[in-house]
Amino acid sequence: MLKARELQLDEMGDLADIIPGQEPVLQAVINPIPQFGKAPRRPIIPVCEPTLSGNELKYVTEAVETNWISSAGSYIRQFESSFAEKVGSRYGVACANGTVALHLALATLGLDPGDEVIIPTFTMIATANAVTYLGARPVLVDAEPCTWNLDIEQVESRITPRTRAIVVVHTYGHPVDMDTLNAIAAKHALFVLEDAAEAHGARYKDRPVGSLGDAASFSFYGNKIITTGEGGMVTTNREDVARLAWNLRDHAFSAERHFWHKYLGYNYRMTNLQAAVGLAQTEQLERFVAARRANAAHYTQLLSKIPGIVTPPEATWATNVFWMYGILLEKEFGLTRDALRQGLAQRGIETRTFFIPMHCQPIYFDQYRGERYPVAEDLCRRGLYLPSASNLTRQDIEVVVQAIRECRSEAGA
Ligand SMILES: Cc1ncc(COP(=O)(O)O)c(C=O)c1O
Predict the structure, then answer these.
(1) CA atoms within 13 A on the CB side of 224
(2) If phi over 0 gives left and psi between -120 and 50 gives alpha, with beta otherwise, what is residue 374?
(3) In sequence order, which residues have a C-beta less than 8 Å from that of residue 27 and are 6 or more positions away?
(4) Which residues on neighbouring strands pair with residue 5, listed in sequence order?
(5) Taking Cα atoms as reference points, which of 206, 192, 108, 109 lies closest to residue 155?
(6) How many Å lie between the centroid of ligand 1 and the Cα of residue 37?
(7) Angle, to 10 degrees, between the axis of helix 285-303 and the axis of helix 272-282?
(8) Contact at 8 Å (CB) between 389 and 46?
């Protein structure tokens, strides 16, 4: 049987202090906050939830009524082309989730065991796992403090003769400085994959993410800006990548003989039901992005009056879509990140800690033993994200900010 890699905190040395405490228990009660008049509209404010306010039901009903519920229905192609167009790409390859979108895009490269793929250490585990599934080695780069994305200045020093690709992550919806990154990749003939799981609609120098490298991968999990429940997509302007990804997604059946397989394929297909939801969601992308940006502006305006809170970044060349509204706590705030989460959970407000970097994960700890990435570690130690759904109201945001103030004053800060 497969054994879990149990990592005890005392094995981690001083890295142990960045690891968050246990998840606080969310209490389903938010007391009305008199300052804002009305009672909140629900007992908890979740960190995220879908907004299914368009043609979702209509299109799903149509898929059911016409008996097209598998991966062969027409919504798949419609969703692929409408989403790809939104992100400025020629092709879209819909698939089962964002992890397999990463896997599919990288699989088109034909990586060999021992090949290396550069990724940020400050990311969600799927970025590293997709590389590992292919037998290649994720090589880590630290984050940089301005955008929380990978530090491009450190990328070149991590390139070796085995490096085949760079995966960048548009973290929490903030784009990476792609021109600088692409120049390095071009110099070393490396494939660039944008992990845009969190950044639907984000723009870099007014160009949409998803079209800025050789390929990009998106997630449509329930907490993403556009969701299909579970789902993902590879977008690309390269016909060779798109054709191969379509084929690999579908067991790599061959055109000349159906049950004849010349590649190791996968069943990573999306269903027509999911694509029906995805098409309806894509029609609303601009509205969702506008809502997230307005919510972020409201949070930032209120939170900047509270000492010790660092609000999320937006570089001059970036349009951040604030998939998650992340904050960092400084000493001056007077409460630790975990203590604040506990206080908010008691008030029915759900939060998440920032990512735990890849070199601190039980499953990768031995591989990166002794490697240190101070910026990513610091983000992990001090960061959390607040409720961020597209359907959040101004009142929800005011309730959250008021609760943060209360937690602070209860702690005597
Ligand atoms: C940066 C990043 N990459 C990949 C994924 C994986 O997407 P999925 O959960 O759809 O497999 C996520 C999921 O949240 C993510 O945040």
Answers:
(1) 27
(2) alpha
(3) 345, 346, 347, 348
(4) none
(5) 192
(6) 38
(7) 60
(8) yes
User: Cα 130 from chain centroid?
Assistant: 14
Taking the CA of residue 126 as reference, the ligand 1 atom at the shortest distance is 4
Question: SS3 of 298, please?
Answer: helix
**Cα 49 to ligand 1 centre (Å):** 16
Helices (H), 18-154: 56-65, 74-86, 98-107, 125-133
pLDDT in tens, 135-168: 999 999 999 999 999 999 999 999 999 999 999 9
Ligand 1 binding site (Cβ under 6 Å of any ligand atom): 97-99, 123-124, 126-127, 169, 195, 197-198, 219, 221, 232
Write out the DSSP string of 243-263. HHHHHHHBTTB-SSSTT-BSS
Q: What is the pLDDT of residues 28-63, one digit of tens each?
A: 865 555 444 455 556 899 999 999 999 999 999 999
85 pLDDT tier (thresholds 50, 70, 90): very high
78 Cβ partners below 8 Å, 6+ apart? 275, 279
Cα(311)–Cα(82) distance, rounded to whole angstroms? 33
